[in-house]
Amino acid sequence: MTSTQPVGTQGTDVSTRSEATLVSTHGKTTIADTVVSKIAGIAAKEVHGVYALGGGASRVVGALRERIPGASVNHSQGVSVEVGEKQAAVDLDIVAEYGVSIADLANGLRRNVIAAIERMTGLEVTEVNVTVHDVHLEDDDEGADEPATVRVQ
Asked: How far apart are CA 55 and CA 78, in angstroms?
């Protein structure tokens, strides 16, 4: 992008900022932010070394939501997107598995997310920013199912 305007505002009016519009001689295709966000979330979860998407608060809300019978999984948890007419920018919040190279993980995330979005939507992905909020240890899972010991009876 050669302009200094944000991705979501270049060449768009207020009513179309949250959607991408692809125009051809046979009509136009509009892609909502939520679609791009969901594609990015699914692509990010496919990368080895990603334990979870989202920061602490969003993971807690997501875990509560998944326990509700009939509730669907939020594939765009931890994903923020800005979508313009021809371009998109993505921000990912993740928890990495312990032992994985974070630099390699970030590069893998960028490759997978860019490929998925560009292949499925035709939008050019200008950037994928990755924020690692935590590192998951296998020890964190142990004891989660065990009852707490009672010290006083």
From this structure: 7
Specify the amino acid at residue 135.
Answer: V
All structural domains of the chain: 33-138 (3.30.70.1350)
pLDDT band at 29 (very low <50, low <70, confident <90, very high): confident
CA 100 vs CA 50, 103, 106, 132: distances in Å: 9, 9, 10, 12
- As beta bridge partners, residue 32 has 19
Q: Which two tokens stand for residue 106?
A: 């970030």
Q: How far apart are CA 96 and CA 76, in angstroms?
A: 17
Residue 11 pLDDT more than 70? no
**Which amino acid is located at 106 in the chain?**
A
Q: How do residues 49-83 score in pLDDT, each as one tens digit?
A: 999 998 765 545 555 555 566 655 667 789 999 99
